[in-house]
Amino acid sequence: RWNDLRETVLSDDHIMAVIDSMTAYLAPAIERNFERWNILGQYVWPNYFVGATYEEEITYLKNYITQRNSWIDANLPGSGNYCFSTYKNKIVISEINYQDDGSIDSGDWFELYNKSSSSFDLSGWVVKDENNLNTYTIPYGTVMAAGDYLIVASNKEKFLAAYPQVNNVIGSFNWKLGNNDYLRVFDEDAYMVSRANYNNDAPWPQLDNQQNETLELLNPLMDLNDPQSWFAGCPGGSPGGPYEFPCSELAIYEAENLKVQVYPNPFVDQIIVEVQDRIDQSYEIISVDGKVLLQGHFKNNTTIISAAHLAQGYYLLKVSNKKQTSTIPIIKERP
């Protein structure tokens, strides 16, 4: 149980955030307290530590808790692996929709993906967010075959109205996902299977709720709690199936007879583009939601595009002249 909670509410980051939140909330009372009782820097029984300032007291508290947690981590008997399911890293959270106030009224939902080569019966598995009181039990008979996707919807009726073509959906879990939240999946023995601790602040992808963008997992082998593992998906997302690039809204760019070579692809800092004829050639790098992020003109047949500032993820490279257009999917990797 300790190892389970250390992943969420008893993690060092979460505890430090709670202390900071309480300190900010109590700020006026703190000032009044020490005006009434001027005891900063003075020993008061049975205090072990005496700080000269309130900030020093807070720092001592944080250091004590962090060291205490580390000691418990090292001294509890048994293996931490026992606290995790045998299904861990086989069923993963692959897409999250936590902003449903745009043009598609689907309610909140998220997607599971079976990345293993085996089928699994999810009967009796439990889904929770950050609040342990928000629980949803997966219905009896829910089976995911190898490579299957499954949507868990907050409101199944609304979801199906918005996505009538998606039939691999269960629900409803009847609570709203926050934009700074946990999603947790437990097996029938209450062991953790998958967890994503996400938010809408940098370095996480900032979603455009009017476009109904979703959080898409870049690769099912990546750490779900690393912001670099996620990107802003297509408007409307890709519920119930794999992410398809480019988005349907970008499919209007069709390659004709313009010969273009791009390398390396995937790239890290820069991408080299070669064209057969440099006359009136221009380029654009376009995000999956249709935003033009970079653009320029060719000075000769080869140009080097510096794209180190782009976030990790999928993009379109559009090369065109007055008569022809070629569009190539490109992938930005982390350094």
In short:
This protein is of the alpha+beta class. It has helices at residues 2-6, 12-36, 54-75, 156-162; strands spanning 91-97, 109-114, 120-121, 126-128, 135-137, 143-144, 149-153, 169-171, 180-186, 192-199, 215-217, 230-232, 260-263, 270-275, 282-287, 292-297, 302-306, 313-320, 325-332.
* Secondary structure tally: strands: 19
**Beta-strand proportion:** 25-35%
Could you tell me the radius of gyration in angstroms? 25 Å
Sequence stretches where pLDDT stays below 50 over 5 or more residues: 249-256
Number of helices: 4
Give the termini separation. 36 Å
- The computed structural class is alpha+beta
From N to C, what is the helix and strand string?
A: HHHEEEEEEEHEEEEEEEEEEEE
Instruction: Report the helical percentage.
Output: 10-25%
> Which shape, going by the Cα principal axes?
globular
Q: What is the mean predicted local confidence, pLDDT?
A: 85
Biggest sheet: strand arrangement: 8-7-2-1-11-12
Q: The biggest beta sheet, please?
A: 6 strands, mixed
